[in-house]
Amino acid sequence: MNMTLSEVVRTARNGQVSKLTNVYIRGSCIRFVSLPELLTSAPCFKKVVNMKKKSEEAAKERAGTKRKRT
Fold it and tell me: Is this prediction's pTM over 0.90?
């Protein structure tokens, strides 16, 4: 999950603050992402939830059609 951020304020360990216009963060470096509550009803996230439900249902169907070996 790579991310591109714009208008970033970075605070160094020594307290120095710097403003950056664009930042690219590699997914393996991301540990936590906090999103505002307003985004919970955003249409783009509803699409993701629907896609996840469909893939889970398909996986259950595939698991149910496999035969046990005796």
Answer: no
